[in-house]
Design goal:
It is a single chain. By secondary structure, this protein is mostly helical. The protein has 5 helices and no strands. The longest helix is centred in the N-terminal third of the chain and has 21 residues.
Length: about 100
């Protein structure tokens, strides 16, 4: 039940951020939603060129705290295209062949 409540809160928060963009309250390009996710390296850099606070970027909802935060390893790559077209840089499946292990 708590998981569903958190998902509803997250969705409502995102919807509020979208509404702020639509209402012209925030920059349509440089805003919390468009620049997410925020990595540790971005949040702890000396320079901060964004119109919202680091706290807002790191902890967008009241129940997200430093001990419960999952830090993304990277920011978006190629905006929405990169989010929707994920590619693997892993070795091919043949590299994990059982036959190779038994021959040695």
């Amino acid at each position: 039940k708590q998981w569903y409540q958190r998902r509803v809160a997250i969705t409502a928060g995102i919807r509020q951020e979208i509404q702020e963009i639509q209402d012209g309250k925030v920059d349509p390009v440089n805003n919390l939603l468009k620049r997410a996710p925020h990595t540790q390296s971005v949040l702890t850099a000396d320079e901060w060129d964004r119109p919202y606070s680091r706290r807002q970027a790191a902890f967008p909802l009241p129940w997200i705290t430093s001990d419960k935060k999952v830090w993304p390893a990277s920011a978006r790559v190629d905006d929405a295209y990169g989010d929707q077209n994920v590619f693997c840089t892993c070795p091919p499946l043949e590299a994990y062949s059982i036959d190779d292990l038994t021959e040695k």
